[in-house]
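Entry 14. Structure prediction run on the chain below.
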Amino acid sequence: MGPTAVALALSIAALGGLVVLGRGLGAATGLQRIGLPAALVSGLIGLLIGPFGVAHVLPMGLTDRWINLPAVLMTLVFSTMLLGKPLPSAGELWRPASAQLLLGLTLGFGQYLVGALVVLGILIPWLGVHPLMACLIEVGFEGGHGSAAVMGPIYASFGFAGGRDLGLAMATVGLVSSVVLGSVLVILARQFHWIGSAAGGDDAASPAPTSHGPWWQGAKSLATNLGCCGVAVLVALGMQQVLLAVSPGISDGMVQVVQTMPLFPLALVGSLLVQLLLERTGQTGLATAPIQSKTAGLATDVLITAAMAGLNLPLLLHDWLPLTILAGAGLGWNLFGLLVLSKPMLPGPWFERGITEFGQATGVAATGLLLLGLADPEAKSATLAPFSIKQLVLQPVLAGGVVTVLAPLAVMAWGLQTWAVLCLAITLLLAGGGLLLARLPTAASGSH
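Output returned:
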């Protein structure tokens, strides 16, 4: 085994050790019982003993190997989202999925709006920052580490050389903030009785049967489930290659969008197609919801731990003021979306659906799923299916999609003021559409 393989094995072992330690301490101290996820404990331990922490136990070279993990882990999470769960009919799904899509798009375009207003009104007059700083809230919060890393060269081509590092810092701040603040919000929701999921839905989880068979049966089931995830990722890779092949015939802009778009939205499509194939062939037992859920949960824990442990504190300290102002404005907008817009826009148990959108809008989709698990551990709110289907439309648009790629081009071509006006119009249109859609069930019920 060469030095590179040894270093990679050590980095994976160290990351796994942090996750195990965090889960153990979380269970022992009772933090998980009050709603704080184990990944938060793991990440804080990693930060304290990391290269920028107090103890410096983990060297820089070790944590540097974790930089690209969020994109890989997000792909794994998305490949599990629809596996093992019966696909609902379009008639049952269109209303909640449409509502969540409109709220998700409202939050995303609102982040561009808030970023533009903050940069125009505060950061450029006081600190003389680059106009493209207005894109960092959406890139870091909604897009995450993968989108921030990919958008770095585009920012640099427009003279915003620090855009990649600042985007990665914003992504880490968003991820940590979504886990901490989201967990606190779930705790408060229980106190104020905002959590209203009482009746099960199509994706309500039934207790998993306890297996008393030999150990190899469990290993076989795990391998089969992971194999289904692998097939979903292979389907995503195939679709990516097709898009790369046909995009030059469309436009140069399309080529740039396809090259920049991360793999995980396509992994969700792969998950849908694999589950559809399993249902059509009567092989649904190959993918089981409990194992897929545990796989996604573990990947989410590792993702959050790696991001927190590798947090570049000197970079945050160097640009702490503009980052703090931008992050504060972004968090304020996302909280407004959860506490003010979610209830009138979303059907059914609004908090469970809303906290999932808050988690995604602040710290990528994996955090949204984590917060959903905290708020609705028994899946009684029927949120997972509409949230997953909504991603099929939202991810190609925001969070590393077309708008994420075109936003810096628009800012530099039209000016930040014009971009702010456009985002204001789109945000109001989406929010108004969501509020109008919320009136449809009453009208529909009266017509029967």
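Confidence is low (pLDDT under 50) at residues 198-210, 442-448.
Filed with the rest of this week's runs.
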